[in-house]
Specification:
With 612 residues, this protein is α/β, with parallel strands linked by helices. The chain is built from 25 helices and six strands. Strands 1, 2, 3, 4, 5 and 6 form a six-stranded mixed sheet that branches. Strand 5 (195-204) and strand 6 (210-219) form a beta hairpin. Helix 14 (378-395) packs antiparallel against helix 15. The N and C termini lie far apart (119 Å).
Length: 612
């Protein structure tokens, strides 16, 4: 009997169709329950898997038990059913284990506070034999970071953050915890004849497990667009993994040629090396790096005068040279050159936010150092710097450096609320900014000045957690105890903080001044504890001579602590002597702090405030 005749005699079609219909109805019920979040999604996936394997079971049963009359299970049928059931159990079990592992990873990420949409891009490894691709690898990494940063759905760790962990030899999960990243991208670069081969790996930050690996090949002469192309491929992979729609927006600037792009990549690498050498105190290495950077940027500018990026970077290199200057004239020359390069870029591209930030920052530094021939020019200089910084962040709200400088400027001119807002924007845009310790300090200082104890405490402790060796974040813990909201102070604990601070202070005159300021703050803490005689003794012992404190920084702090102590007459006496020696230095900024609330309205105090 042929196969077709056997099929006609059996009820296999009836059995299979009945199974398909019944199973489909059951799947629809499961789907509805899952869609309403009554059961997890894995239940539907397992049900669908079992349904498909069940179809094989229906075929076997229909074939061996489709005839009429009594039928017995045959050995072949039992073997087939056993194999199908084992395969179904293994497949569904694997799916469940994988789901449970994903859930555990998600929980680990949540417990670590890691968001998969927060992405850290680590610098690509140069896998060339002679290390010649290092500038290209750095430039590609910067391009990827820049392109991914323009995706609204992502929170991308800045290049400053990536630099912080570079070369540290840390595991991926350790890097993720340091940077607070839920997703980490690593990779390598090598050259195969005329092609660049980039391997990119996407890791789960919480566990460090590699989620995916992709390789990309591009002609070496198209390197100028490679960063954006790589970011597009990475975004597509992230879209698959995270289940969200992402779109990489067009780059703000493009190199005119691959050669020009490579010059800028080499220049930026040399500039970073020079800045790093300054921090190490290696002036010779820094000078060499700046010279190499300037030469590379010059070659890039020659390729296309309308491309402003190398011009701005050259100006940035001049600004970064300031610590190497050996005289005021050299500082002035470096800042002047930085402004000239920024103006050159602005002449070509008037709304270039980077050029505006560079120019305004250089002008503000001239103001802080009073590098003008006529003191009457200081106020216009400050106003121009402020306008430039404000316009830069208006054009590009992601410029953390401009926000940081603005926060410093606002604090200097007595606008603490504006200083806090600008500093918050700097911290939000780049928590790994090179000057982030200064940003945290201004967030604390401005919050302290307006008597916001909660915010002052938060920023002080955050600074202490990140920069425990920075004396300022131990100092602020002492000053916090002078605030009324701190409650009854622990005097013994304050003395311990003062002892903890001592080895962190710099040497020389700066250390003497800081030591005095903190001892006076301790006097205020003791006064708040109800021990005025002891407080007075500490304040008197902390005083410095005019030679030790030529700027007159300590008298205002002593006066403030005497206000806390309830010694208003003593406070006014100190302020009178201070203003007599430093007319005009106690005014709109110092007079706004909460320290002076008890003196406001007092004729003597108001007269002191207005003395010039």
């Amino acid at each position: 009997m042929g196969l077709w005749d056997q099929l006609k005699q059996r009820r296999i079609t009836q059995i299979v169709v009945t199974y398909l219909v019944g199973g489909w109805v059951a799947l629809e019920v499961v789907s509805t329950v899952v869609d309403r979040d009554i059961l997890p999604g894995i239940v539907y996936r397992v049900s669908l898997t079992l349904y498909l394997f069940g179809l094989l079971v229906a075929l076997v049963v229909g074939w061996y038990h489709g005839e009429k009359g009594e039928q017995k299970a045959r050995p072949v049928e039992l073997v087939l059913l056993f194999v199908i059931l084992v395969a179904a159990a293994g497949t569904s079990g694997s799916m469940v284990r994988s789901w449970m592992a994903d859930q555990a990873g998600d929980r680990a990420g949540e417990e670590a506070g890691l968001d998969l949409l927060t992405i850290a891009v680590l610098y690509l490894d140069d896998d060339s034999d002679d290390g010649s691709l290092a500038p290209v690898a750095d430039g590609l990494t910067d391009g990827i970071i820049g392109a991914l940063s323009r995706v609204d759905e992502f929170d991308v760790i800045s290049r400053n953050g990536s630099e912080q962990v570079r070369g540290a030899g840390l595991s991926v999960d350790s890097v993720a915890r340091i940077l607070g990243a839920g997703s980490v991208i690593t990779g390598s670069l090598e050259q195969d004849d005329d092609e660049l081969v980039v391997t990119v790996r996407l890791h789960d930050g919480a566990s460090g497990i590699e989620i995916s690996r992709e390789s990309y090949e591009w002609p070496a002469d198209s390197v100028s667009t490679l960063g954006s192309e790589l970011a597009g491929g990475i975004s597509e992979k992230l879209r698959e993994v995270l289940g969200i729609e992402v779109r990489v927006r067009e780059s703000r600037s493009r190199a005119p040629t691959a050669a020009a792009w490579l010059h800028v990549a080499r220049g930026e690498r040399s500039l970073r090396s020079a800045v790093s050498a300054i921090r190490r105190g290696d002036a010779a290495e820094a000078a060499r790096g700046f010279a190499e950077a300037e030469a590379a940027f010059g070659l890039a500018q020659a390729a296309d005068v309308s491309w402003t990026e190398p011009t701005v970077l050259e100006g940035q290199a001049w600004y970064e040279r300031v610590p190497l200057a050996e005289s005021v004239d050299e500082i002035d020359a470096a800042l002047t050159r930085a402004v000239e390069r920024a103006d050159a870029a602005l002449a070509v591209e008037p709304n270039n936010a980077a050029a505006m930030e560079l120019k305004a920052t250089a002008l503000y530094r001239r103001w802080t150092m009073q590098l003008v021939a006529d003191p009457a020019d200081l106020d216009p200089l400050l106003a121009e710097a402020q306008r430039g910084l404000e316009l830069a962040v208006e054009l590009d709200g992601s410029r953390a450096g401009a926000f940081s400088t603005l926060s410093h400027l606002y604090y200097q001119v007595g606008e603490p609320f504006e200083a806090i807002t600008a500093a918050r924007n700097a911290y939000r845009n780049d928590a790994f900014l090179g000057v982030i310790d200064g940003v945290l300090w201004r967030l604390y200082s401005a919050s302290y000045d307006i008597e916001d104890y909660g915010q002052a405490t938060e920023w002080c402790l955050r600074g202490y957690d990140r920069f425990p060796e920075n004396f300022r974040f131990t100092q602020c813990r002492i000053f916090l105890l002078t605030m009324r909201a701190a409650g009854t102070p622990d005097v013994d604990g304050a003395w311990e903080l003062l002892a903890e601070l001592e080895p962190l202070l710099p040497g020389g005159a700066a250390g003497t001044l800081l030591r005095s300021l903190n001892q006076m703050a301790l006097g205020g803490v003791i006064a708040r504890a109800g021990l005025p005689d002891s407080a007075n003794a500490v304040l008197l012992r902390a005083r410095l001579t005019p030679e030790q404190d030529p700027g007159g920084d300590t008298p205002t702090v002593e006066a403030a602590m005497r206000v806390i102590m309830g010694d208003k007459d003593g406070a006014l006496d100190v302020l009178r002597r201070y203003v007599a020696a430093h007319p005009g230095h106690f005014g709109r900024t110092s007079g706004l702090q909460w320290w002076w609330n008890e003196l406001r309205g007092d004729p003597d105090f108001e007269r002191i405030r207005t003395l010039n």
